[in-house]
Amino acid sequence: MSTRVVLPVWQGAASSGATYVQVGNLRILAAELKQLLTAGVDRLGLVVITLTFAGQRLPGERRAEATRRLLAALRSLVRKTDRVFVLGHRGYVVLPNCDERGRMAVEERLWWALCSRVGSLHAYELADLTALAVGGRTIERAESQNLLDVLREVTGARRVLTAPFSSAQLPSEAGEAGEAAGPAAPPAEHDYPRRQPQKQEQHWRPLTSEFSEELLAEARRLGIPYLAPLPRRVPASVRQAISPHLAHELHCCPIGRARKTLTVALADGSNHQAILERLRRETGLQIFPVLTPPHELQQALERLSAASSKRR
């Protein structure tokens, strides 16, 4: 059974009465997608958002409400012709006639919107949310006969953020002037960005390796967020807060800033207190750490060095 839900404006939906469809199980969702593919759509871009809550301490209604609050904020960031389905604590954003490049662009847009959204909500509104993850893939019309299998396999995460969440510390996409990017306007019918960084796919690695699980466990033990992947574009004001030499020496990289708090990515939390203290002395700012995989940090350091070289 599918239930169409009108999102109230206070939940962040478009004032025009944007809707999502709440489905009872994967079979119903597969039937909805098959109907789209057999109605003349060549392919579907699919972005899957998974929310994880701690245990069963809070009533299910509280977790369901937290899910609605987060997913409702995303509806105005996609086209009116796009579809949003909710199943349990998972949201499925369906993009008709969208290729993989466009799908990945939308995934990135929704990811940063989610990061901003969880940072703006109070703890009681998040209902013991411990992690959010985003992934997805493109579904071709030829796959319409095995959509149930596709949906079961598509839940692997490309991007993961773990608690604790804070609006002053979560990274945000921004322009070169250092201004935080606001919510994007709903794109036109086919207005998906066409240009993406080359070889982008190799940076988006599913969170399935044993090493990634160890990093998640370490982040929970230290009480700091886990973030992957790191933002590809960082404002000059953030990059210049730490010299490339110091960043390489301490093996850390600045990725965001809000007032007097600088967000810094680390790949090794074993000595993070000493690193944070050194950064506080050098910058005069409060330092908030996030843990990230070593390959993500290495790529961020390379981008930092490249940007510094261009300034010269």
Walk me through this protein's architecture:
The chain has 312 residues and is an alpha+beta fold. Helix content is 36%, strand content 22%. It has ten helices and eleven strands. The protein folds into two domains: 137 residues, 2-Layer Sandwich (Alpha-Beta Plaits), CATH 3.30.70; 100 residues, Type II secretion system, protein E, N-terminal domain (GMP Synthetase, Chain A, domain 3). About 18% of the residues have low confidence. Helix 1 packs across helix 5. The longest helix has 21 residues. The strands form two sheets. An eight-stranded mixed beta sheet has the order 1-2-4-5-3-6-7-8, sandwiched between helices.
Main attributes of the structure:
312 residues, globular, GMP Synthetase, Chain A, domain 3, eight-stranded mixed β-sheet, alpha+beta
Structure described in brief:
This protein has helices at residues 26-38, 60-72, 100-120, 123-126, 147-153, 210-222, 236-239, 244-250, 272-283, 294-311; strands at residues 2-6, 19-23, 43-53, 83-87, 90-96, 129-140, 159-162, 227-228, 252-258, 261-266, 286-291. With 312 residues, the protein is an alpha+beta fold.
Q: What is the element layout, followed by pairings?
A:
Blueprint: E1 2-6, E2 19-23, H1 26-38, E3 43-53, H2 60-72, E4 83-87, E5 90-96, H3 100-120, H4 123-126, E6 129-140, H5 147-153, E7 159-162, H6 210-222, E8 227-228, H7 236-239, H8 244-250, E9 252-258, E10 261-266, H9 272-283, E11 286-291, H10 294-311
Parallel strand pairs: 2-4, 10-11
Antiparallel strand pairs: 1-2, 3-5, 3-6, 4-5, 6-7, 7-8, 9-10
